Amino acid sequence: MKIRARRKVRGFSLIELLIVIAIILIISGIAIPRLLRSRMVANEASAVASLRTLCTVQVNYESTYKVGYAPSLASLGPQAPGTAPSATNAGLIDVILAGGLK
Questions:
Q1: In degrees, to the nearest 5, what angle opens at C-alpha 101 toward C-alphas 96 and 102?
Q2: Do 13 and 21 touch, CB atoms closer than 8 A?
Q3: I need a labelling partner for 1 at 20 to 30 A (CA). Which of 8, 51, 89, 94 fits?
Q4: 95 — phi, psi (to 5°)?
Q5: Rounded to the nearest 10 degrees, how much is the dihedral formed by the CA atoms of 17, 12, 15, 25?
Q6: pLDDT in tens, the chain (102 residues)
Q7: How far apart are CA 77 and CA 59, in angstroms?
Q8: Is 5 left (phi over 0), alpha (psi -120 to 50) or beta?
C-alpha cells in the first residue's frame, strides 16, 4: 500500500497580510506629505514668477506709454486681433495672466 504524501497548499495568513498593509500605510504616510509639500513649493514658485513678470511688464508699460503704471491687468493684456497695441490693451502679457487666474 502506498501512502500518498499530501502537500498542504497554504495561502497567506492574516498576520502576513496585516504586516504588508501596515508597511504600505507607513510608506504612504511618509510619501503623501512630501508630495503635497512639493506641490505647494511649485505653486509658490509659479506665483513668484508671475509677480516678476508683472513687475517687468509694468516697467515696460510705464516707459512705453508715459502715463504711469497700468491701472489693471486687462490694460497689460492682449489687444483685439488686427489692432495695434495701445494704453488700454498693451499686449504685454497673455490672456491667462491678464485674467488674474494664474
A1: 75
A2: no
A3: 8
A4: -60, -40
A5: -10
A6: 666 666 666 788 999 999 999 999 999 999 999 999 999 999 999 999 999 999 999 999 999 998 999 999 888 988 888 888 888 888 898 888 888 776
A7: 14
A8: beta
